[in-house]
């Protein structure tokens, strides 16, 4: 067995089992040593080996071997496909054996079954135990990624929980203390005792209720945004959503982290008291994980869709709201970025990514282009309107060849002014003549009255 390694894949990770040096050579030769990995801790299979009454030689060989769990990525998945592993129908595991892994890193052969006392693949119960430990390693890896996410977004989850009035959220801080304490004891002792498990097993309900509450808060933001039509109101809601969405994503991440920790402890407890049930328990946990992921995918996809709708509404009214519309786009982009990053950490974009989420990058560019086009179109329209108005105004002052003799005559404005001047002159002349016919010094006395006065007084003069 010194120059062969056994491979087990459950879709999330790859277990490489064999002689420590052979395992190391294989990982390096295939470029798998750069991926996240964990020690499987094969000696923990002792409970299963004792229950099966396997020979001392077999138990010793498996316990002394090396087992390494490697996280499967898109790149490594393509590499693993070259090994042509055989998939079992009963548990969904893919199995294979790499033979003669030499110092040059070249694979001499690939078979589907292993022989000998150190074989894990040949014993269904032992294989189920390894699969359970693999699931535990995958969950532990996910816990580390969630911790990294919480550190990156720099949200103090305990502060957020303390600010909430709901009693369920208040209990979450206590749950965190209990679970963290149980993990510390497990790492120190190497197992989950009955006492430790009795403290932890009642905490899962609080975590589940808090997770449901956080998802409802995200749904409420989506519903509130959906009900708004006015750009000003949309801008207010999207701005408020920037902080709220990030906070509830942080609470949700903490729920996932604690649930993962409970599952890690649960697998250890099953391995302790019912090792023969470990494989079926693993399958059940895998199903629960998928359902949890689907709930989060639906909720975040709904909010992503509403953010897209908000951008569309803002873009359609950008000319009438030149300040609020861009604010809606900025806030929506920020919320969408936070949502997509959270989904990426849960690998939702690969398995459950919605059409809205896939098109978000394209939609953001499209919105940007449409906003630019709409704004530019408005400017062009204003420019054309101004040019037309200027042409119409200037045309009134240009000379016009009205009689067709080739000589420009007076402009319309000049003719109008000249005509108006003539009319004014006529009115003024008439008024002046009337005034001139009046007798000097007899203001307000008519011409007939002056004549009668002269007849009555012939000596006047």
Structure description:
With 461 residues, the protein is α+β, with helices and mostly antiparallel strands. It has 3 domains: 4-123, no CATH class; 155-355; 412-456, no CATH class. It is built from 17 helices and 7 strands. Strands 1, 2, 3, 4, 5, 6 and 7 form a 7-stranded antiparallel beta sheet that branches. β5 and β6 form a beta hairpin. α10 (231-273) runs antiparallel to α11 and α11 (278-316) runs antiparallel to α12. It is elongated. It starts with a strand and ends in a 5-residue tail after the last helix. The model is unreliable at 350-363, 381-398, 423-432 and 434-461 (pLDDT under 50).
- Indicate the mean pLDDT: 74
What is the helix/strand order? EEHEHHEHEEEHHHHHHHHHHHHH
DSSP helix fraction? 55-70%
Q: Gyration radius, to the nearest Å?
A: 43 Å
Q: How many helices in DSSP terms? A: 17
Query: Class by helix and strand content?
Result: alpha+beta
Number of domains: 3
| SS strand fraction | 5-15%
Query: What's the number of extended β-strand segments?
Result: 7
Biggest β-sheet: count, sense, barrel? Answer: 7 strands, antiparallel
- Principal-axis shape equals elongated
State the separation between the terminal residues, measured CA to CA: 157 Å
Q: Spans of 5+ residues with little confidence (pLDDT < 50)? A: 350-363, 381-398, 423-432, 434-461
């Amino acid at each position: 067995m010194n120059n062969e390694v056994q491979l087990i894949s459950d879709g999330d990770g790859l277990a490489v089992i064999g002689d420590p040096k052979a395992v190391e050579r294989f990982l390096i030769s295939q470029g798998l040593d750069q991926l996240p990995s964990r020690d499987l801790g094969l000696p923990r299979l002792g409970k299963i080996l004792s229950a099966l009454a396997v020979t001392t030689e077999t138990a010793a060989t498996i316990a002394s071997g090396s087992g390494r769990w490697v996280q499967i990525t898109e790149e490594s998945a393509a590499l693993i496909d070259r090994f042509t592993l055989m998939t079992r129908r009963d548990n969904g595991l893919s199995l294979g054996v790499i033979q003669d892994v030499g110092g040059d890193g070249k694979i001499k052969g690939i078979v589907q079954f292993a022989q000998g006392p150190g074989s894990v693949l040949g014993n269904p119960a032992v294989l189920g135990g390894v699969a359970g430990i693999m699931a535990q390693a995958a969950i532990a890896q996910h816990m580390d990624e969630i911790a990294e996410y919480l550190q990156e977004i720099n949200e103090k989850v305990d502060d957020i929980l303390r600010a909430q009035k709901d009693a369920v959220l208040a209990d979450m801080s206590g749950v965190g203390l209990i679970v963290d304490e149980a993990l510390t004891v497990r790492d120190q002792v190497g197992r989950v005792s009955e006492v430790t498990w009795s403290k932890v097993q009642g905490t899962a309900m609080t975590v589940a209720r808090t997770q449901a509450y956080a998802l409802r808060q995200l749904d409420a933001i989506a519903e509130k945004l959906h009900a708004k039509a006015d750009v000003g109101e949309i801008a207010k809601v999207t701005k408020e959503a920037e902080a709220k969405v990030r906070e509830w994503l942080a609470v949700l991440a903490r729920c996932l982290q604690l649930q993962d920790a409970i599952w890690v402890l649960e697998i250890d407890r099953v391995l302790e008291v019912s090792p023969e049930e470990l494989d079926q328990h693993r399958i059940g946990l895998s199903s629960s994980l998928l359902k949890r992921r689907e709930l989060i995918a639906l909720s975040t996809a709904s909010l992503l869709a509403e953010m897209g709708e908000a951008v569309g509404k803002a873009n359609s009214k950008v000319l009438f709201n030149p300040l609020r519309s861009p604010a809606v786009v900025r806030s929506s982009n920020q919320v969408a970025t936070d949502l997509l990053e959270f989904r990426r950490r849960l690998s939702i974009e690969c398995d459950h990514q919605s059409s809205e989420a896939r098109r978000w990058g394209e939609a953001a560019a499209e919105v940007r282009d449409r906003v630019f086009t709409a704004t530019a179109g408005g400017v062009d329209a204003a420019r054309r309107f101004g040019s037309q108005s200027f042409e119409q105004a200037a045309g009134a002052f240009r000379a016009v060849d009205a009689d067709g003799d080739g000589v420009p005559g007076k402009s319309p404005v000049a003719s109008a002014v000249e005509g108006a001047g003539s009319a004014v002159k006529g009115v003024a002349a008439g008024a002046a003549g009337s005034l001139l016919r009046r007798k000097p010094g007899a203001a307000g006395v008519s011409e007939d009255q002056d004549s009668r006065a002269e007849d009555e007084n012939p000596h006047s003069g």
